[in-house]
Amino acid sequence: MENHQINLSIRNVSKTYGNGVQALDNVSLHIPPGMYGLLGPNGAGKSTLMRTLATLQDPDEGSIRLGEIDVLRQKEEVRQTLGYLPQEFGVYPKVNAEDLLDYFAVLKGITNRAARKEVVGRLLKQTNLWDKRRQKLGGYSGGMKQRFGVAVALLGNPKLLIVDEPTAGLDPAERVRFLNLLSELGENSVVILSTHIVEDVSELCTNMAIINKGKILLEAEPMQAVDALKGRIWRKLMPKNTLEQDQQVISAKLFSGRTIVHVYSEENPGNGFELVEPDLEDVYFSTMAGFNKSCQQVEEVSI
Ligand code: ADP
């Protein structure tokens, strides 16, 4: 199969942990090449799904295919073509980036010295760490460590790259740099970005899903999902703590000491509300609140 045709297909995947928590509830997703955003609050089941895709744990039920590969049965094949940047990963603080990346490259099976030098150099440049390659990783900032993690994940040209909550601990400048790096990754591979930050998805992803309590609530293209909300999101600026109970409030944000309230309504709610252009945050909050049923699309996919 040609690389550019690789799709990831997740069908009816469920997982209940030993403590009784159902982390995944009949999850089905069709993930094409490109950047895919898996958006959901803490505890939604994102990491459980990411670890399952990375062959680190098994679901109770369901099937997963990456192109021709049966992910749950052909784990070695998956691992050969997988790059996984977990939520938290350790680095050896006393080793420099170049040496550690070289070491991981050996583990990945790149045994030829010259080939390894070329790959390590290219990845350090791609992740903008070339100038800092001799610096010990213990002295790296959060953003630099994350970019180093991407360099490690990219060893061996993965066809599936999984990045779990990568921007959580980054300052705004580091976050932008990190997202720019992700956006440059090949369009030929499947890149899954799991995050609770709506902007990560709106800035980067061509396809997305919203997950909550183990269930997929929405699978959509961000732009289409935003379009589908046009004419339904209304805004009002209020003094603090004066929310009206009868409105379908989807978000209330403090701004300069006042509260900006967004409500979902198919008709003009009157009462001083004005129509606003929806954005992905409105999609997220109205979906989470159960109002956004118009563009719900959770359908069976064929492999
Ligand atoms: P997210 O990545 O979206 O924050 P997780 O997949 O980490 O969500 O967690 C989903 C749910 O499963 C949470 O309620 C969490 O507490 C629970 N959970 C996660 N890992 C385990 C585990 N190893 N054992 C028991 N419960 C777990």
TrEMBL record:
The keyword Phosphoprotein does not apply. InterPro entries: AAA+_ATPase, ABC_transporter-like_ATP-bd, ABC_transporter-like_CS, P-loop_NTPase. The keyword Transit peptide does not apply. Transmembrane segments: none annotated. GO terms for molecular function: ATP binding. Keywords: ATP-binding, Nucleotide-binding, Transport. PROSITE patterns: ABC_TRANSPORTER_1 (PS00211), ABC_TRANSPORTER_2 (PS50893). Residues 8-238 form the ABC transporter domain. CDD domains: ABC_drug_resistance_like. Belongs to the ABC transporter superfamily. PANTHER family: ABC TRANSPORTER, ATP-BINDING PROTEIN. This is ABC transporter ATP-binding protein. It comes from Pontibacter anaerobius.
